Amino acid sequence: MTTVLLSFAAVSLFFLQSLPEFPVAGFEAKPDTVTVYVSDPMAISELFADIAEMVGPSVVTINSRTTVTTTSPGFGMTPWGFYGFGPPREREFTRRGLGSGVIVTEDGFIVTNHHVAGEAHELEVVLSNGEVYPGKLVASDSRTDLAVIRIEAEGLPAVAMGQSRGARVGEWVLAIGSPFALSQTVTQGIISFLGREGVGLADYESYIQTDAAINPGNSGGALVNLRGQLIGINTAIASRTGGNQGIGFAIPVEMVQDVMSDLILYGEVRRGWLGVVIQELTEELRSQFGVQDGIAGVLLADILPDTPASGSGLERGDIIIAVESEPVSSVPSFRNRIAATEPGTRVSFSVLRNGRERTVRVRLGSQTDAPAAAGQTPRVQESERGWRLQELDGNRAERLGIHNTEAVLIVDVSPDGNAMRAGLQAGDVILEVNRRRVRTPADVESALENSIGNALLLVWRDGRTSFIVMRL
Predict the structure, then answer these.
(1) Tens-digit pLDDT profile for residues 149-208
(2) pTM surpassing 0.70?
(3) Catalytic residue check, 141
(4) Which of 219, 330, 350, 414 is catalytic?
(5) Is CATH 3.40.50.720 the right assignment for the domain spanning 55-71+89-267?
(6) Residue 355: which region, alpha, beta or left (left: phi > 0; alpha: psi -120 to 50)?
(7) 272-372 CATH fold
(8) CATH fold of 378-471, please?
């Protein structure tokens, strides 16, 4: 019983300071330690109930309908009385979806996930009191998996906005949504991790990870703190079964507000654009570039032509360690930081070059103005083989001096994978696998899946081709 009471006390001391406090027997206050007190556990239960009652009306159920057209071979009776194949037939069917949303303004704006509403042809919004409204998609952004819809209503219960930047791992949170069509479902848990990257759900990721139960239908619902404030939009789970297994992800409210504002004002998200190729600063690269232990950053692997970065003073091989004095810790965090900056803004980069730190200022462009090859970077495919692959675009092929763009670029190689053991490097271009041409990362992975034991790769590097045997 003592263990349970202590778990309550940690929160009750912070949020319920007006309650009577009783020192726990056997605990002695010591310097630089936290003194633990026990308060009425029922107050915690009442607090959860109050939050659910306050935030619940701001969370809605979203039913979607999407018309899908399929083509199938025709089959029927011919004019001569025989059955046989005829012209292909097109058939339409309706795909129904279920999700959640959060009311963010009193006049009907609702934020949800792109995968809930972004591609639907018909939307229906059900309020907590049972009222039903037709919903209209305002705009959607697949790169963050966020969407804004609107209903024609006034005086709606808009959610209170909070902050995720001040949140801490271990804090209690509540998730509210409509899992399995069970509207107004409230679950409780803690923040398990902050700034979770590399999940592979969207292009821009910095998720709040939580163990509050999230299931299908929760997508687009609210993750709130114990002040009843929105700190995230629930978006996905990591699961082997499709149900909750204690690992859920929410988009932090700061990203939600930035994207939501652009979608409402401009109908799209305006993102800053630098025009560079960056990679993680691995231990091997750290050693090659003489970067001391303890210094974090990303490696500038290439500068694309005719971009804001070209001619700015940035150089290939620079280690970018800070943006506007804010330290850079990883490739995803750097990309998020640049994308979240208003196009046209002059940004200060702190870089290491030949062991010396210097500052370079660049005026960012807009991703909407970027050439297709440079602005829309081919999606990178990661593999358990210890490499990251992407299609070779025209600009990068020109920079590498290779004329054939129907090939696959190795973007990065991890220090403990099959690719590294085979001697492959970031910047290598894979032309063939087992003497067959490959054009996409999927081609490479498919060919390797069908290989037995080893695979023979034809690789272009530094103007020459060579065969490399990769053990599987």
Answers:
(1) 999 999 999 999 999 998 999 999 999 999 988 889 999 999 999 999 888 888 899 999
(2) no
(3) no
(4) 219
(5) no
(6) left
(7) Pdz3 Domain (2.30.42)
(8) Pdz3 Domain (2.30.42)
